[in-house]
Amino acid sequence: MDWILTDLLGEVPYVRHVVALSSDGLCIGQANTAPDTADAIAAACSGIQSLARAIAQMFPEGDGSTHMVGIEADGGYFSLMAAGPGAYLAVLADQEVDAGLLGSRMRTLVTRIGHYMTSPPREDVGQAM
User: Fold this and answer.
1) pTM for the full predicted model
2) Angle between helices 99-113 and 2-11 (to 10 degrees)
3) Domains in the chain: boundaries
């Protein structure tokens, strides 16, 4: 999957890191990101999507699901988008990024590969002895 995520780097200037992750915070793909950094981003995203889901559940007409979370910070932007059942796409970009273009290209990428980015819940396959 890493090579597909690399497309985002070429389409949107100032993108720093692209990470695909499971809802429980495990990295399942990365582009332009060292493995330790990708793991740290994925773990942090697990907490962010959990908090976003708690807020989404406060809307009585919704089902509690979230589609996108964006954070503007000193130095850049962070975007987290639902990318398939149990999977998310996270992008960190410099402050010069065109945030509208980034969101559009993320949505296009998710539409294109979302069915490949499924991460079903893990089951405990170990047995007590």
Assistant:
1) 0.85
2) 150
3) 2-116
